Amino acid sequence: MFRRYPNNLLRLIFLSVALGHGVALQAQRPSVQTPINLKPDIVYKTTAEGDLQMDLYYPASELVGAYPLVVYTHGGGWAAGSKEKAHMIAGVSWYGPCDFEKTELFNPDGRPNFRGRFGSRLLKPETGPSDQLRFYREVSPINYLRKDGPPLLMIQGDKDTTIPVHHAYYMQEKAKACSAPVEILIVKNAGHCWGKVDAPIEPPLNDIVKRTVDFLAAELSRKK
Known about the structure:
There is one protein chain. The protein is of the alpha/beta class. The protein is built from 5 helices and 5 strands, in the order H-E-E-E-H-H-E-H-E-H. The strands form 2 sheets. Strands 3-4-5 form a 3-stranded parallel sheet, with helices on both faces. It has a two-stranded antiparallel ribbon with strand order 1-2. It is globular and about 55 Å long.
């Protein structure tokens, strides 16, 4: 399957999806060893708080036909992280949330009087109830499910207390209801960022990365 894509493009895909597992990765300029061009700090949106920027990596040699695109979004819970240092559209979600409106999904063990940690990071102090609900719905992936939508693979740890596994199961439930193409992979004994809890995680990290790349490559093949 991979032989259908140039090595440079596969390196681009791998760079985009496999930055994870707590590794701090600094964006590097192209070199002889990595023949990939880089356009850094492209402003894709301007907000009151400042410009939002992205880096674009693309093959140094021109390819024939349309270029597949992989978008990598760094983590950090709206409190940390940057595009220069990662802290982890067919689409692949590594331990990501699906619905901010349904706050009980963030409660890992059903404890009473649970208070989520993300509300204060997403909203401003002056945000009213109606605007809060509108914003939660806007940023919740579950509200964009549709039958003809791009395939999504959600990979979630079964012992993650930051983004509990409830998110994957709830996304799968809602996807089945509208026939949206969503798959889930539950990683046993895994906390957030694939940290092991009581025993080694299963499947191991290398298998998670392979499943991620295989999923994207299969979708690229299908589109071609």
